[in-house]
Design a protein that fits this description.
The chain has two domains: 87 residues, no CATH class; 68 residues, no CATH class. The chain has 165 residues and is of the alpha+beta class. α1 links the parallel β1 and β2. The longest helix has 15 residues. A two-stranded parallel sheet has the order 1-2.
Length: 165
């Protein structure tokens, strides 16, 4: 495979200007080894209303948030540059323990999950009607690794319908 300036391969990524969310430092470290061209697509707050309307019109349904808008912008840029096939790592962050701002350790040592802009935990067991909730049991995932970080990729405690076993 050809690498560097003679290659057609490029690394596309989006940025928002907030270092808590931008993955550019990791992208830059990765492409140092390949010398592929970097294409950075910026999503500015001023672009969000019109882009949100456009994405909603195309999808004809609600979408997951700012990353969807940023990907729309990135896909437009890729197409404009003649790139029609993109390979992404969508979901890999979540598979490999997610972002550190999702998990918050409480003073008692337990963990809670949160999302930016949503106060408190994103786990809302009280939204279940009591009859449904009474059929659930705590399901603890396996812990094959000696450290809690790698065990996060094995799953989190979940609720599972009791099958009477």
């Amino acid at each position: 495979m050809v690498q560097g300036a003679d290659s057609d391969v490029a690394a596309f990524t989006f940025v928002t200007g907030d270092p808590k969310y931008d993955e550019l430092p990791w992208v830059e470290k990765m492409i140092l080894h390949t010398c592929h061209r970097s294409v950075v697509c910026r999503l500015d707050a001023a672009d969000v209303p019109n882009l949100a309307q456009s994405v909603t019109d195309y999808q004809d349904e609600p979408f997951g948030g700012l990353p969807t808008l940023a990907y729309a912008r990135l896909f437009e840029r890729a197409r404009a540059e003649g790139t029609i096939v993109l390979l992404d790592g969508f979901g890999m962050d979540e598979q490999w323990a997610g972002y550190d701002y999702y998990a918050n350790k409480r003073l008692d040592g337990s963990m809670t999950l949160s999302l930016p802009g949503i106060p408190g935990s994103v786990v809302r067991p009280d939204c279940l009607i009591p009859e449904f909730r009474s059929q659930a049991e705590v399901c603890l995932p396996p812990r094959p690794f000696p450290d809690s970080l790698r065990n996060l990729s094995c799953g989190t405690p979940c609720l599972q319908r009791s099958l009477g076993r």
